Amino acid sequence: MPASPPPASSLLGPTNSARYSRQVALPGFGPAAQQKLARARVLVIGAGGLGSTVIPALAASGVGTIGIIDDDTVELS
Fold first, then answer.
1. Where are the domains of the chain?
2. What is the mean pLDDT of residues 15-19?
3. Are 34 and 12 in contact (CB under 8 A)?
4. Which residues have C-beta within 8 Å of that of residue 59, sequence separation ≥ 6?
């Protein structure tokens, strides 16, 4: 019989275990994948229409470090 994986709370801690419980429950994902997301670094180039939608999704999914580069200037229209 294969060994069962450790509970998510032991790998993620109690706060993150509750926060990401639905994500960790996805088939093929699990606590180890959530830990990889926490260690991931993502650079978003452009914070316009698409970038401003992607950034909150990356943060909510648990990506550890998010960098943002946007050379636009805000002007009155």
1. 8-39, 41-77
2. 84
3. yes
4. 66
